[in-house]
Design a protein that fits this description.
Blueprint: H1 3-14, H2 16-26, E1 74-85, E2 88-100, E3 105-109, H3 116-123, E4 131-136, E5 139-140, H4 146-156, E6 157-160, H5 172-182, H6 187-200, H7 216-227, E7 234-238, H8 246-263, E8 266-271, E9 282-287, E10 290-296
Parallel strand pairs: 3-8, 3-9, 6-7, 7-8
Antiparallel strand pairs: 1-2, 1-4, 4-5, 9-10
Helix pairs in contact: 5-6, 5-7, 6-7
The structure holds adenosine-5'-diphosphate (ADP) and magnesium ion (MG).
Amino acid sequence: MTLTEIIETFKTKLNPSKIMDSLEKKASFYDESEYSGDGSGEDLKNNPYGNLTGGSVENPGVTRITQNEKDPLIKLTNVWKIYQMGEVEFAALKGIDLEIYEGEFLVVLGPSGSGKSTLMNLLGCLDLPSEGSVLLNSKDISELDESELARIRGQMIGFIFQSFNLIPTLSTEENVLLPLEFQEEDIEVARKKAAYLLDIVGLSNKKKNLPSQLSGGQRQRVAIARSLAVNPPIILADEPTGNLDTKTGDYILDFLDGLHEREGKTIIIVTHDLDLVKYATRVVYIRDGEIEKIEDRKKNKTEE
Ligand code: ADP
Ligand code: MG
C-alpha cells in the first residue's frame, strides 16, 4: 500500500485530526486555545512520494542496495560495546546475536541501563561495535567509509529518538526538511514532502513553530514526520512513548503500527514499557547487555 492509501485510510476511518484534537485537549500539557485543528488535508491531495514505496524516485543518483528477502536487513553477530571511562571499562553489550528481517515489528524490552539505547545506536549504524559485526543489507558497516555509511543509513533508516532530538532553533518544517537536505533533495520537492508529512501527523498548522512552542506529543509527531521524510524501509524508535501521556503514546504507536501493517515498514522499538509488546511480531528481552530470550508472537492489540 502506498502512503497515499494509508492517508486515505487514516482520513476516512480514523480521522486523525479529530482524534488528535480530542487527545490534545485532554492532555495536561496542552493549551486548548492554541489548537486550530486545521485537518483540511490540503497537502495530502498532492502526494510527492508517488507510488514508489521505496521513495527514491526523485533521487535517481541515489541507489538503494537491493536485498534478497531471505537475508536479514540487519544482522548482529557477537556484538560487544565497551565504554571506556578513564581507567575503567564498562561492557554495555556483551555478545549480542540478532537478525532482523524485513516486515518485522520488533520490540526490544529491557529495564533502564540494560543497553537498549546502545543497541539502538548499533542497529541504526550510528555507532560501531567494539567487537563483533553489524551487517546492514549484508554489508559490514565497519568496512564502509563515513560518507557511504551516512548515505546508506540516511536512505534505509528513520530515527525517532527518546528525547525527540529536534533542532531547537529550527521550525517544525525545517526539522522535517533536514534529512531531505542530506539526501540533496530538490528544495521544492522537499517542501512538498514536508507539507505532506506534516499533514499526515496533523501538524500543518504548526509549520513555523519552534520545538519550544509545541507540546510533547506534537514534538514527537514532528520527530515521526522527520523519520519518514526519506520514506525509509526501517523505522527505529527509542522509547517513543517515554515522554508522552498514555493517550498520545497510544496514538503514536497506532500510527507506527499502521506503517507496519499497511506500508510494510520494518519497525524496531527499544523500550522498558511492557505495554508496547502487544504491537510486536517478535520481542527481544535484554538485561545487563545480554539477550535473555527472544519470543515470536502474534500481534494482539486488544490484550491488556
Ligand atoms: P538503556 O537505554 O537500556 O537505559 P543504555 O544503553 O543507555 O541503557 O546504557 C547501558 C549502560 O551503558 C548503562 O549502564 C550506562 O550507564 C552505560 N553507558 C551508556 N553510554 C555510555 C557512555 N557513553 N559511556 C559510559 N557508559 C555508558
Ligand atoms: Mg535508553
